[in-house]
Amino acid sequence: MKETFLGYLDAIYKIHLEENRMVKIGEIAEWMSISDASSSEMARRLAASKLIIIQPYKGVYLTRKGLEIAISILKSFYLIELFFSAVLKLKNPELSADHVAYSFPKDAITALEKFLRKNGFSKRIDAYFINHSGAIAIAGRAKEGASGLTLFYFGDERFSKRLEKFTLEPHKRIKILNKEDSETLILLNDKKIRVPNEILGKLYMLIQ
Fold it and tell me: Strand locations in 100-172, DSSP E?
C-alpha cells in the first residue's frame, strides 16, 4: 500500500509538470492504471495525511510535505536509472528503475548517491537535482517583471480558503507587476490582483 501511495504522489507531480495545472483524480487513475474509485479512495487517504489537498470539481494538488516526498521519489528514480544505465549498462534502465524506485529504502539511496559521486557522476547528479529542487518561496523571487512563476503550494486547507477571495489557484502561472511595502500586484489569467505580502510570503513557485 505504501508503494501505491508513493506512486500516487509521483503521478500528481509528473502530470503537473506536463500540464501545468491541478490534476484530476481520473487522470491519476489512468496514469496508474487503476479504477476511478480506487483513485478517489487514495486521494481521501492522502488528504487525511495532509499530503494533498482536494478541491472538489477542480482536482488535487500537493502540499509542501507531499511535494517534498514526490521530489524525493523523482531523485531516487534518477539515481537508480543512472546506476542501471551508466554502471550496469542495462538495455532498459528506465523500465528497470520504475520497478524498484518506490521500494528502495532511504539508506540505500544515500549509499547509491555516494557511490555514483565517488565514481565521477557528481556533475550529472548536481545538474539534475538543481533542475528539480522543488518549491521555493515566491516572495524571495517576486521582483517586478518576473514572469513564469508557477503557484504550487498553498499550505494547509485553512490557508487555501483564505485565498479564495483573491481568486488564486495552484498550478497557475503569474507575473509580478508591481511590488510595494504591504502588497504586490500580480497578473493571473489576464486579471490584475493585489495580494498582501503577508499572503505572498506563504506562496511557493515550482522550479522546473
Answer: 135-137, 149-153
